[in-house]
Each structure stands twice: as C-alpha cells, then as structure tokens.
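Lab meeting notes turned into a lecture example. A postdoc, R.K., suggested we walk through two folding results consecutively so the class can see how the record format repeats. The first protein's sequence and structure tokens come next.
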Amino acid sequence: MNTVRIFFFLLFISSLTLGQESLDTIPQLNWIPTYKEALKRAKKEDKPVLIYFKGSDWCGPCKIIERDLFGTKKFTDLAKSELIMLEVDIPRDMTILSPEKLRDNLTVKQKYRVKKFPTLLFVNHRGRKIDVKSGYILTEYYFPFIQSVIYKYKKS
C-alpha cells in the first residue's frame, strides 16, 4: 500500500515540475496596461480589443487558459497581428496590484458587468461589445471563437 502511495506522490510531483517547465517557456503577449490605452491603440491599429478577466491568485481555469491558449505560439502569432490585449485581474489579495491598476480593473469589470471568470470579452475602439465567452470551456473551442470574432470585426 505504501508503495502505491509513493508512486502516486512521485507522479504528482513530476507532473507539477513538468507543468512549471512549460510555464517558463510561454510566449510573451503584449498586454496593454490600461483600458483607455487599449481603446486608443485599437482605434489607431483598427483591431478589436480582447479583454481577459481573470483572478490571478484564485482562478484555476484562468491558469489553464493562460497555459493552453495564451501560452501557444499559434495564439501569440494571432494576437500580435490581429488583437489588442488587455488583462483585467481581479485577485482576492488586492495588494497584488497597484491601487491605480486595481481601480482601472474594477471599473472595467463593473462597466461590462463581468461576474464569471475567466471571461474573454471583445470590444471595438469605442468600448462597444462585439462578443463574449464567460466561464471555462475546453481550450480548443476558444481559438475558433476568437477567429470568428476577428472575422466579424473586419467585416463590419
């Protein structure tokens, strides 16, 4: 019985180590620091804004999306060419963020009435909602959704 427990413990530890190694190699996304800056850049570059609402210190599904979607080269390439990225973190430990960033994040969360995490919200340069996905879905479904939003944006 102890051998089985040791085996599963070692398996668990090795899976954590492997996961950590992959997190260290995540491609960097260009997150715009504030909502106003994101809208300004969206107007200038004629791109939709992807607002990613997350809870950095408590949301497990957010960590999965960051690893399995945002952490891919496919998404990073798409984001660099087609999206303006804004991260809105609502942590439980509010001291993680600067007071200015926390204030901006809470304002954006309230403006769009976001209640579920993670939420991917797309807006135009005026802040008008294009589309939204709330809550966690299988990661492979996010990419076609994002591509359809970009297509709708370009068509309008």
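The second example is placed directly after the first for contrast:
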Amino acid sequence: MTCGWRACAMSALLAPGLGAGAAGADAITLPSGVVVHEIDRIWDEDAAAIRIRYLVPRLREPASLYSADPERVLTDMTWLCETQIRRLFAPGTDPRDEGWEGAIVTMMDREIPFGEIDAEATQFFEGFLFTMDGCTLDLDLYHD
C-alpha cells in the first residue's frame, strides 16, 4: 500500500523504493519521536529533485504515532527536508543555485529496490520545493 501524507491512495506505482542497507544507517529521531534510518539519496537530475528515502519499520502499525495524528507525517517530512537535505550543501548554499529545485521525501516500512513494486509495503511520500527559508510543499505535484 502506498500513501501520501494526506491519505492512503493509488498504488505502489507512485512511490517505488530503493534498498541500500538502512540497517546500518544511523538512527534519526524526528520531532514526533519517530525513529527513521536513511536508506539512500537519489540525485534525480531529470526532475531537479533530491530523493531521500527513510526506513520506518513500525510505520504500518495501527498504534503508530502517524495513525493517531496523520499531520505528524507532514511535520516530520518537512523537518527531514529542511535539516537532512540542506546538510548536503555547504552552509549558506542555496540548493537552487546548484540546479536543485526541490526534494521528495519518502518513508517506508521496508526497503524496496527503486523502480520495483511491493503491494505489501506502506510508503508515505511528499514533494517539496526549496525556498529561501527552507522547504515548502510542492502543491503542483497534485495537479495535472
């Protein structure tokens, strides 16, 4: 099952993953208290976006923090964009000056190779645009 932060929708075709050994990755504690492990980063030059993907093993559980308050997903994903992606650039560097327009943050309950479908997986994903002040939702992703 694939889910945007707003609601579960569509199919796993929308947010395929890529496995690269998150088990050894350092744990990152999000503002909500959820712990994630970075799986990988994909520098998608065609989309001018940095895809950063995280493993959240308990994401699917009904008792998870996100089930109780789905808005926490957006808060945590925004925080990941503003802290983890921005750290990829030298201090004071605007990613837009380097040709990057935004980021796509993905959280998944299991590692999935990029481009593959796993109908049993739960994934949340969100697109952001880089701004002078950080990251803002890329609302154009939801319009044709």
